[in-house]
Amino acid sequence: MSHTMTALLGGAGPDWVTREVSVPEPGPGQVLVRTRAVSLGNADVQMLASADSASGSGNEYVAGYEFAGEIAAVGTDTGLVQVGNHVMGASPGAFAEYVLADHRHVMPIPGSIGHEKASALPTALFTEHGALALASFQAGQSVLITGATSGIGLVGVQIAKALGARTVLATTRTDARSGLVKTTGADVVIATTSQNLTKMVLEATDGQGVDAVLDHVGGQTLADCLPATRVDGTILNIGRLDQAASTIDLDALSYRHLRLLGVSYGFSRAAELGGVIAGLTPHVLPAVADGRIRPVIDTVFPLAQAKEAADRMRTNQAQGKVVLVMP
Ligand SMILES: NC(=O)c1ccc[n+]([C@@H]2O[C@H](COP(=O)([O-])OP(=O)(O)OC[C@H]3O[C@@H](n4cnc5c(N)ncnc54)[C@H](OP(=O)(O)O)[C@@H]3O)[C@@H](O)[C@H]2O)c1
Questions:
Q1: Can you tell me the distance from the alpha carbon of 108 to that of 1, in angstroms, rounded to the nearest whole number?
Q2: 107: Cβ–Cβ under 8 A, 6 or more apart, which residues?
Q3: Percent of the chain scored above 90 by pLDDT?
């Protein structure tokens, strides 16, 4: 194995730059993965913008989070993970030929989906399944997923359906992407700029509201979810695609006995995220293997076109995940 590798660095300008850096060595509990494909998430482009050397911190870092590839080396205490295993997972610094990961943060690639599709799944699987678990979701319940055209939301709809949701309601801002959400199995799609979110949800749930909300949007959308959630229901804030600030009606929160929770797996303790991944493995990975849950891929670029990949995310053109294939 070479001692250096190609990596994409943020913090050197408005775009990632390619650099040769040292290949890291796995410590206790860590595995070294030879990446074959990596995927972009919203946080990757946000981090790139805030590290821009002209307008932001200028602090350089190896970019990326989600990857698929094979185990190249293992440290001590890495459980059943072995060199040569094909895995997908999440760890900072994934946009490089090799990435270090906690052994609890990689999963076997299900079925024969291959590296490109696998790289588009890890964050969506653990975030959406973890959020459903926190909401105490059970088969037969109804779920509202806001910002459902996001890379992770498109998978969230499919996980909820695969786990037996009675009804999945999903939002996008305009009608233009309603069809995209429908292909993932959503029963009702609400275009929030032209339709009243609360009213539509109540109409679709006999006036009761949904059992659980997975909110990727924040702002006014989160506020509109409270009166659209049934008594004793749960609202999980996952993302703030619109705004981090939201003015909510505390009467709706209290009179309906709602639970309003937040989760950010990028800021979880390693063991905690490991537990979330272990929890999804028996239920969700088989559904990926048999095609009930599929990644929605917008575009696959070679690593050399990382700028074009970031542009698709930054300009809100991507309809699903943007993938980079490693050299
Ligand atoms: N909690 C966690 O652990 C966790 C993990 C991963 C991601 N996240 C967060 O989850 C969210 C989704 O991540 P992602 O990578 O899947 O996102 P993404 O693919 O970049 O999301 C793209 C979608 O965002 C929607 N959007 C853009 N601006 C919006 C606005 N102002 N209001 C409402 N919708 C808007 C667009 O939907 P339309 O044009 O169709 O409306 C677009 O389809 C992000 O906020 C991310 O930070 C959280």
A1: 23
A2: 87, 88, 89, 122, 125, 277, 281, 285
A3: 97
pTM above 0.85, yes or no: yes
Exposure class string for 91-114: b at 16+ Cβ within 10 A, else e = bebbbbbbbbbbbbbbbebbeebe
**Amino acid letter for position 274:** G
CB-CB contact of 137 with 159 (8 Å): no
Q: What is the mean pLDDT of the chain?
A: 97
Q: Is 191 in the pocket of ligand 1 (CB under 6 A)?
A: no
In order of their start, the domains of the chain are 4-121+295-325 (3.90.180.10), 124-265 (3.90.180.10)
CB of 11 within 6 A of ligand 1: the answer is: no
Three-state secondary structure along 210-240?
EEEEEECCEHHHHHHHHHHEEEEEEEEECCC
Q: How remote is the CA of residue 181 from the centroid of ligand 1, in Å? A: 14
pLDDT in tens, 97-109: 999 999 999 999 9
For 27, phi and psi rounded to 5 degrees?
-95, -170
Helix or strand run (H / E) with residue 89: strand 86-90
Quote the ligand 1 centre to 41 CA distance (angstroms). Answer: 9
DSSP state of 308: H
* Cβ-based burial of 221 (10 A; exposed 0-12, middle 13-18, buried ≥19): buried
Average pLDDT rounded to a whole number, residues 131-140: 98
Q: Residue 1's pLDDT is what?
A: 73
